[in-house]
């Protein structure tokens, strides 16, 4: 690969603070790795161990590690002197133990070295564990105590006039999570919300005060639980607060690293941005900072990504160091780059959304453009199934192209379901990458139905459900399965029962690689559960039923590589960040931007700093709503951010393709609907 002058300039820049601001596919990740090698080459006293390299996901960490491994290996191979050879061998060996990680692991490494810590709002033991749901325990415990107190004091609970208790708990949980992921000062929000509550009508006032009272108690209780168990949001918050209030610890961190690199900085959170400013301050011993990002690809607001923080850092680096840019897109066909530019040129800023577009430069300037090769529409009428039409289109393509050229990118995991069913039916090999809806898959729900039938074969409902599962077909008789297995049911472990079902029904021969991999994963989960606490089939069914009902987040099984390398990939647009595929297919483009995202029950009012709510009266049939006074205002402030973020999600999706984009939508999509299909139209 021949680096361009602008790429070389970035690699060789010597300023202590550098931000590389560049669009998709311009080589940001590429130059980040090459800069690391360049610094090590230039300074014999420097090692990868003196650097902290922060990525956004574990997958990105692996990708970066393997790119560095390749470059170090090449260096080692081409070295002429023994000393140099020894040095690069050491660097290669150091790759697995150096600080290349997500920001959370970076914070964990800092906290691990600190020891016990006590201050006003940070206290923890050095033996803390990472528990992803420690806040849930806080909510459960506080709720129980609070309800009990209200009963004893014979006080009514306003929320219970509107919603059942489990729903109320969910509201509190969502509100608390919202405040935490945004990194907001919870005490301040509580104070503001209480202040504005006085302006509300009597019912709304009572509801607001109740909600705030619970959040305050959860917040205080959670603080005590954190002594032993932090969750990942706490890692960032605690790390920042400790570094801020303890200069000795901050000095230790500054002295440990000589260089800090951050990839995908557009998805930075408030605490991450503030922490980086602390560590990389103006002092002599502070590490240098190298940050790459693209604000147009900031798509994680729901997880606390904060574009304001990015902009502040950009301003700060502009003052203290340099901001550089890269303009040429190396990923995509030149016509495709021009096509994507045209789409975003067309999107004009208005009251509803904004997209700050700066066009990408194609790697070659062409005088004659031909969009027919790089884009195609598959349009369905209202009744037609998009999944079926895409499967038929793909079957034709697969006659002359390998399946792994194609990737279907979805906005949400649940949208994959109909495609998974259709592809399975049509025998197209596919794999689902990183989707957290394992317990929502038909094969998993069907496994539960079969087990429920085997436990209670006399119940008609279970029989009917079981007979309609993927396990039963013309050649596989349900009754026969029961007769063969029932004498073993008391002695088999749940994993053995599943194994028997899979073998007896010969499901492997009839299912896709992904479906079978999920079934094997279920068997492994059953084995793990029995290993931990020796559970019965009955208990396993209870557990599985709870997981299915809760829609518990669990990734689908990885398809083993050796089985088939040639499959179509399914993933969400969010998971595809940083990746590239020859052909990208985008289904469901005619869907409206999620109403749930636009009108959630609980919202944070960005201007007032308050919590606002919109409750649907659970027991009313007419969709009766109770709104707090600032809700509508909060929605319109939020709507602007939601739509603008959706435009950025679309930008990420469109810029993943190397050769072609295939759009799937509805031929009668109303022109005034706010949806991807209308944003993409350039005619
Ligand atoms: N000078 C170059 N010549 C040829 N190919 C290049 C050059 N620079 C980068 N590439 C290739 O372009 C593609 C995009 O690079 P990279 O993934 O580093 O971009 P990025 O800016 O990080 O993209 P994104 O922001 O979309 O994740 C990769 O396949 C990379 O190998």
UniProtKB/TrEMBL annotation:
Residues 1-333 form the UvrD-like helicase ATP-binding domain. It is an enzyme of class 5 (isomerase). It comes from the Bacteria. Its EC number is 5.6.2.4. GO terms for biological process: recombinational repair. GO terms for molecular function: 3'-5' DNA helicase activity; ATP binding; ATP hydrolysis activity; DNA binding. InterPro entries: DNA_helicase_UvrD-like_C, DNA_helicase_UvrD/REP, P-loop_NTPase, UvrD-like_ATP-bd. GO terms for cellular component: cytosol; DNA helicase complex. ATP binds at residues 22-29. Residues 334-578 form the UvrD-like helicase C-terminal domain. It catalyses: ATP + H2O = ADP + phosphate + H(+); Couples ATP hydrolysis with the unwinding of duplex DNA by translocating in the 3'-5' direction. Transmembrane segments: none annotated. The keyword Isomerase applies. SUPFAM superfamilies: P-loop containing nucleoside triphosphate hydrolases. Keywords: ATP-binding, Helicase, Hydrolase, Isomerase, Nucleotide-binding. This is DNA 3'-5' helicase. It comes from Thermolongibacillus altinsuensis.
